[in-house]
Amino acid sequence: MATSNRSRARVALRTGVASILAAVTVAALSQTAAAADSLGSAAAAKGRYFGAAVAANHLGETAYASTLDREFNQVTPENEMKWDATESTRGSFTFSNADQIVGHALGKGMKVRGHTLVWHSQLPSWVSGLSATDLRSAMNNHITQVMEHYKGDIYAWDVVNEAFQDGGSGARRSSPFQDKLGNGFIEEAFRTARSVDPAAKLCYNDYNTDGVNAKSNAVYAMVKDFKARGVPIDCVGFQSHFNSASPVPSDYQANLQRFADLGVDVQITELDIEGSGTAQATNYGNVVKACLAVSRCTGITVWGVTDKYSWRSSGTPLLFDSNYAAKPAYSAALTALGGSGTPGGGDGSGATCSVSYTTSEAWNDGYNGKVTVTAGSSPITAWSTGVTVPAPQKVVTTWNGSPSWDSGGTVMTVKNAAYNGSLAPGASTSFGFTVQKNGNGAAPVLGACTAS
Ligand code: 9MR
After folding, report:
1. What is the C-alpha to C-alpha distance for residues 344 and 335, in angstroms, rounded to an integer?
2. What residues pair up with 92 in beta bridges, in sequence order?
3. Do 50 and 300 contact (CB within 8 A), yes or no?
4. Which residue has the higher pLDDT, 249 or 24?
5. What's residue 425's pLDDT?
6. Centre of ligand 1 from the C-alpha of residue 365, in Å
7. Which atom of ligand 1 is nearest to the CA of 115?
8. What's the mean per-residue pLDDT of the chain?
9. Mean of the pLDDT values across residues 298-313?
10. Which residues pair with 428 in a beta bridge?
């Protein structure tokens, strides 16, 4: 079973690579501005990664994928690896959605964090109905099957998630695992995980543990005990979901440091900070600086690419707004990482744009494509984007845009025409083109949109 599952993952990976190669070619053509600058590359220059939680069902959205691919070098599947997604029926495993994310990420050289193996939430009801003996074997089998499927593909696993209670008790949270197997379930999960994939880092992940408090003290005591007794644990994830009721703690860095001093890596795993403007930007900058100040803080993951799809969208907690325009929080995070503070090393005007594609008409051997260009949250005066049509298709004409070509006629960079470069914030224009299919009906791939 493990072997056939793995080969399915590889197929997904290869498929991902083909489409990604096309996108990379276009991005290289369209981003003629300064040296590439992104959260991922700036973090890499500091020996760290900068990632995002990703949902498989958004990967087909051009602006989502191009923002992800341009900015991030690590992904965490937001829901696709959870127990209810991978083993909703006992013994029957489903990996297709998670495979899509893993294939996309590995094809772009991004790291993947596995999230999560043992958690009280998003747990199918069959699990809570089991006897202790049966639950133990179901837990170990779940860890084994999921980790086997992704063996070699995952840099770190959230082996156990959110096992401690909120508040001042420092107690374990009630869950089928805790209630039936007792405190030892966490240790058992980590030991099983190590035996399945000795190369993967094994992490404990939780929220409201970001500062020094009763809950983080309890996690700290557990990690200290694990290290003392040789229970395999490599890292601790600090989710870092912040808002006005749960602000960035003043002892955030000190708390990360005390865990690191136990001999584990620490990571910021689900960062989002509700708010807007300068206040939000300052918080993001401070979180990034705290991680950089702790040598064992090896990476930061924000919990989503765009506010549009955030689990708490109304709090606009992420780095890109609903139009994929970089927010002040983005600039603050990038600047704190030592980057330029503007997406793609842009011109500093804050001008951004996004693109989306539709086929407006199609016939036997041809189609008309339409690309809508939308300005981000600042006004723009010029835009440019890439379009790659899959060979042997050929673009025969374009309108409402000014194209330049590669020698094969399959990759073009389209800049605005004289009359449609200026767009108010959030406003859109479009350009079109006619393509000869030459036997290939596949849709074109858009590159990133750049604006000034
Ligand atoms: O972002 C996830 C959201 O789409 C799900 O509906 C939710 C269900 O529990 O889980 C969210 O992700 C959670 C993560 O897996 C663990 N830490 C808290 C995250 C936000 O709720």
Report:
1. 13
2. 89
3. yes
4. 249
5. 78
6. 45
7. 15
8. 90
9. 98
10. 374
Residue with tokens 């043992």: 118
Kindly report the CA angle at 169 between 168 and 175, in degrees rounded to 5? 120
Query: In the structure, which protein residues have their CB atom closer than 6 angstroms to any atom of ligand 1?
Result: 78-79, 121-122, 207, 239, 270, 311
Structure tokens at 150: 């992704």
Q: Which residue blocks in 230-327 are alpha helix, DSSP H? A: 252-260, 277-292
Distance from the first to the final alpha carbon of the chain: 52
Residue holding tokens 């089928």? Answer: 176
Q: Do 290 and 251 form a contact (C-beta atoms < 8 A)?
A: no
**How many angstroms is it from 177 CA to the middle of ligand 1?**
19
Predicted pLDDT of residue 28: 34
Look at the block and give the residue holding tokens 């989710």. Answer: 239
Ligand 1 atom closest to 311 (CA): 1
pTM as predicted: 0.75
Let me know if 274 is a catalytic residue.
no
Active site residue 148: no
Record the tokens describing residue 435, joined without a space.
């393509």
Q: Which amino acid is at 434?
A: T
**DSSP characters for 86-138?**
H-SBTTB---HHHHHHHHHHHHTT-EEEEEEEE-SSS--HHHHTS-HHHHHHH
Contacts (Cβ under 8 Å, ≥6 apart) of 24: none
> Given the DSSP bridges, would you call strands 445-446 and 366-375 parallel, antiparallel or unpaired?
unpaired
**DSSP assignment letter at 161:** E
